[in-house]
Fold each of these.
Amino acid sequence: MQVHDKVFRPFIDAKTIQARVAELGKQIDKDYEGKRPLFIAILNGSFVFASDLFRHITIDAEISFIKLASYKGTSSTGNVITSIGMEEAVTGRHVVLLEDIIDTGKTLHAFLPEIVHRQPASLKIATFLSKPDALQYEVKADYVGFEVPNKFVLGYGLDYDGLGRNIPELYELAE
Ligand code: IMP
Ligand code: MG
């Protein structure tokens, strides 16, 4: 399949993805019994994963969406990441962050302090994908759909330059 200038080939089929996401959802459903968790999905990439996972939650639960924006910090700390749309009260809540993929870990590493600062009762991370070989920052996901090799992937919410998010299965870059 061609997207923009690159060729992608099938990697994980839709049935396998659905089965795994159902498994994760049911696990979280069990782990958070009686805790009324607040899911916070990080846009844009996680919206497909979040939508599928959330429908496997049967306990009382809330979901909210945020967008992360990075800008150059004025000091030597480099890029600063802030969230847009986090009006939901996080203090005292059991928060589960939903991500599409942890690649280098840079995004979450920079953003986590902002959440921690608001003093949730607990904080866990659920990510659809992780690329352990690409990790450069200390970020540990508590729930991982699939560990994938350090290759560019596309589909199920993940894009290549804006395209491909609507593909129900996962593709990888063919080289
Ligand atoms: P980070 O390197 O962990 O900060 O990853 C940041 C973001 O890069 C992810 O949330 C994705 O939106 C994007 N990203 C990383 N790897 C891929 C990939 O293989 N395909 C599509 N997007 C990716
Ligand atoms: Mg993303």
Note: The mean pLDDT is 93.
Amino acid sequence: MFQAFLIKYGEIGIKGKNRHLFEEALMQQIRHALKDVDGEFEVTREQGRIYVEAAAELDYEEALERLQRVFGIVGICPVVIAEDKGFEKLAEDVIAYLKERYGGRPMTFKVQTRRARKDYPIPSMEVNAALGERILQAFPQMKVDVHQPELLLNVEIRKKINIYSDVIPGPGGMPVGTSGKGTLLLSGGIDSPVAGYMIAKRGVTVNAVYFHAPPYTSDRAKQKVVDLAKIVARYAGPITLKIVNFTEIQMYIYEKCPHEELTIIMRRYMMRIAEHFAKESASLGLITGESIGQVASQTMQSLAATDEVCRMPVYRPLIGFDKQEIIDVSERIGTYETSILPYEDCCTIFVAKHPVTKPNVKVIRRSEEKLKERIDEMVKTAIETAETVEVE
Ligand code: ATP
Ligand code: MG
């Protein structure tokens, strides 16, 4: 029954020039989201609103599902389009719509007409009253309530006439592409995909880096990360994923440095390498899935020790989340099932029984001195041999 969607978006902070950028980015994201959905959608902007109209038979369920993943959308109104063939025909169409959509359920209602086309012969107020009357005749069990109606029936008169009454919630946030780019350290765990989702929700375009340690981590572990990137990409749009072979560096650290410092030193090298790719892709920051106190390597002291090697800001969208809160988001966005698949993780393999929880940066730097001989060359090789996967 529906042939179009009216898209509602938040307007806070998008005044002036920003508004135009916001709308352009939102339209682009909508087009991308609907690219392979049946309906030949046309996305247009008129008078501060965005319309998505199907030129062909549309897959309504799929289109709606996709739109519900586009950041920046606050509400989605499915629209029925009627020809403008006079008031009688309009009244018939409205009654047919209400019958099909609500089956004549008793409810209070209000008609809200907008004449976007000012040459329409009947003023909005009169359309409201006349339509209201017809609705009451057709459905005597319904009642008018102009203050708090259960059903707000919108009728917009333009070249054709739009009829809609539902507002389905969108994900909110900012359209991806309006806030610059960030580089996500993406592992196979629960947290980092959620961190990627959350930063994308603020309009940030996401690139990702995964540190792989074959043969200690398997091809399946790598595939799991690609799969997670795919799920995040449903919300964030296309993601360029760099897969870095980290084995040599990890072994070298293991060989030269105190084992209880392994995790923190490894993390510092991950950050350094990630920052290289971040710069290369013009990212403005690094993103991780860390939250204070979750594990030994995520105390404030540990986070300070990892930050120390970065010039770029490190964003940690989950910083104040409890594990259960992170799990709740991951279930909602669909990454959880993949995240909990039991493949090994490069950080857990060499992990010490008693890792330092309050690393002293000076001590860590001194330990890293022991890597002096070969580490630069190893980092260079890791960067040069990284594999690039374009994830859609
Ligand atoms: P996650 O569920 O995201 O793996 P975690 O609780 O297992 O998180 P850690 O293993 O301590 O936490 O990792 C902390 C953060 O460091 C991760 O959220 C991620 O951003 C990054 N990270 C860890 N391991 C890797 C890896 N192999 N490749 C890329 N990033 C990683
Ligand atoms: Mg992990």
Note: The chain has a mean pLDDT of 93.
Amino acid sequence: MKIKSAEFIISNTDVAKCPKESIPEYAFIGRSNVGKSSLINMLVDRKSLAKTSGKPGKTQLINHFKINDNWFLVDLPGYGYAQISKTKRKTFQKFITDYFFNRKQLVCTFLLVDIRHEPQKIDLEFMRFLGENGIPFCIVFTKSDKLNSSKINKYLQVYQQKVLESGWESIPQSFVTSATAKNGRDELLTFIEEVNKEVGSIQ
Ligand code: GTP
Ligand code: MG
């Protein structure tokens, strides 16, 4: 799919204030610093549409970006960021879970994990949350430029094995990406294009 336009629409902490349009929406979630905002920029081929940072905790709001005038990418705050106060973490958790519970336009969630790390408890818990609430998701491995191809395969196998051991009957669809090397871009955009066609306009 060709990206013809990508525009920032709105940031907020309240799912009720998210855009009202019934067009398909894809959300990016995962640990802080895993590369959610960078992946969005890579997909739309814009350097800083979504704000990125070397320090975790950069994205703090629900950010809607409208793509090709007919679907949304949504950049969310990361979870598992230790350097914030308990109160703030609770607020984060509340508006993020409210978003997932209430956002009817959400057709698929991309759960990002760093390809170099074994599954972390918090990621497996989030997968369980999505599964238990019937929220469709894919796993997106990030930062694959940090490994050579044989290591990528090895890490993938370990990851998938651990996901199965944690109780999943099959492995969710997954993608291997690198925002810096632009790996996985065509695959993700083709996937989105297919889902867009399947769902059409959401009632
Ligand atoms: P929060 O908003 O804090 O939750 O983080 P985030 O998940 O949005 O991460 P962000 O995109 O801001 O990237 C975090 C850091 O990882 C930045 O220093 C990026 O340059 C780096 N990064 C992101 N993607 C990649 C990648 O594919 N390869 C490499 N080598 N670095 C990456
Ligand atoms: Mg971010």
Note: Residues 36-37, 58-59, 75 surround magnesium ion (ligand 2) (CB under 6 Å).
